[in-house]
Write a structure and sequence with these properties.
Largest sheet: 2 strands, antiparallel
Distance between the termini: 38 Å
Number of helices: 6
Order of helices and strands: HHHHEEHH
CATH topology of one domain: Arc Repressor Mutant, subunit A
Helix content: 55-70%
Low-confidence stretches: none
CATH architecture of one domain: Orthogonal Bundle
Radius of gyration: 19 Å
CATH class of one domain: Mainly Alpha
């Protein structure tokens, strides 16, 4: 029965999607270990990091800005931001010029937890990707190209 199923790739290790999925799951497991003690999920970390990055150059960061920066669904971003607000990591205030938008800001508590999380995640990344050694810059370049090519 299953012998009749046809695959494009001869084996799972020939499939870039399969391999990317495997690496992603292993990487996310590693990040979960360092983020759990900080009471953050990976998604919460990504949105906090996006907010932190955007806040360096913009005092009026919105939910839409965070969604674009993180390549995340706007509705999911809204739900996660509510959770981060409940944890007192962010505040949401009326936007200065757009009555439909809210300005998202890190609280002092949010800045502290983000800084701890950045150190933990960046160290985990350096460890996880250390195998690539001198090829890391090329690997990152290809990832950027894949993101650019596949954004809708």
């Amino acid at each position: 029965m299953s012998k009749e199923i046809e695959f494009h790739f001869k084996s799972p290790t020939d499939s870039p999607g399969y391999l990317l999925g495997q690496v992603t799951m292993l990487w996310q497991r590693k990040l979960k270990k360092v983020l759990d003690p900080l009471d953050l999920t990976h998604t919460q970390f990504v949105l906090l990091a996006s907010l932190g990055w955007l806040s360096k150059t913009n005092d009026n960061v919105t939910q839409v800005d965070i969604a674009k920066q993180s390549n995340a669904d706007r509705m999911m971003v809204s739900k996660v931001l509510r959770t981060l607000e409940d944890k007192d990591f962010i505040t949401r205030q009326e936007h200065e010029t757009d009555t439909r938008a809210k300005t998202i800001k890190l609280t002092n508590k949010g800045e502290k937890i983000l800084q701890k999380a950045l150190v933990a995640v960046e160290n985990a990344d350096l460890d996880f990707f250390s195998f690539l050694d001198s090829k890391l810059a090329s690997f990152n370049k290809y990832l950027v190209q894949l993101i650019d090519k596949n954004q809708d």
